[in-house]
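Example (one chain per record):
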Amino acid sequence: MTTPQAAQAAPKLSDRARLALIALGLHEDGEWVDYPSLCARLDMNSHEVRRAVADLCAAGIVQRRRRYGRTPDRRRTNLTFFRLTADTSQVSA
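Predicted structure:
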């Protein structure tokens, strides 16, 4: 595949999605990350990070998992965690 074809085949990601991808690449392989920790790392609000992660999920770069848990103030809720897919983490290594 030539360079122009590869550029067209690459997903078109927003700048925030690219920043989130870089931040996720800094985590160890297979490590699940939650929204609050990524918000703190990127200095963005939760809506910006959620949109960026949604773009990455739609591109097939990130997988998302919801788990039942408790918030720090002990309220029951579904917590969302995400990580790079196995293919993506192997390419970045």
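Caption: The chain has one domain: 15-88.
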